[in-house]
Amino acid sequence: MYTYDTVTEAVNNLRQRGYDIDFNQEYDCIACIAPTLSLQPNEFEITEVYRFEGPSDPADEAVVYAIESKHGEKGILVDGFGPSSDTASEAMVEKLAVRR
User: Fold this and answer.
1) Dihedral sign, CA of 90, 31, 23, 62?
2) Which strands make up the sheet holding 62-69, listed edge to edge?
3) R_g of the chain computed on alpha carbons
4) CA dist 61 to 17, 64, 67, 82, 86, Å?
C-alpha cells in the first residue's frame, strides 16, 4: 500500500500507474465526460482509498479513490469527506464508504 502526504501526490502517482480517467460523483453513479462513461455501483470496484484530513478544518478533508470498471477502465475520484461530501444514493454511499 502506498502512503501520500497530499492529494496531489496521490493523484499524480495513480496517474503514473494507469488511472487516467477523471471521475465525478453523481447521485447514483460515477461519470466521466471524456471518454463518455457512466458507471453504476455494481460496474466498478474501488482498488485503493486514500483519506486526507486537514490539520484543524474539517472542510479540508478529502478522499481519493482508485477505481477500476468491470471492463478495465481505470480512473480516479476525488471527493469531499463527511459533511462536505456530495449527496448520493444509498447504493453509492455504501460503495464509497471508507472502510477502516
Assistant:
1) negative
2) 37-39, 30-32, 21-25, 74-80, 62-69, 44-52
3) 13
4) 24, 10, 20, 8, 13
What is the pTM (predicted TM-score) of this model? 0.83
At 40-93, the pLDDT tens digits run 999 999 999 999 987 656 666 889 999 999 999 999 999 876 544 557 778 887
Q: Is the pLDDT of residue 4 over 80?
A: yes
Based on the number of CB atoms within 10 Å of its own CB, is 74 exposed (0-12), middle (13-18) or buried (19 or more)?
A: middle
Q: Where are the alpha helices (DSSP H) in 1-100?
A: 7-16, 90-96
What one-letter code names the amino acid at 40? Answer: Q
Beta bridge partners of 12: none
Q: Residues 6 or more apart from 40 whose CB is under 8 A from it?
A: 28, 29, 91
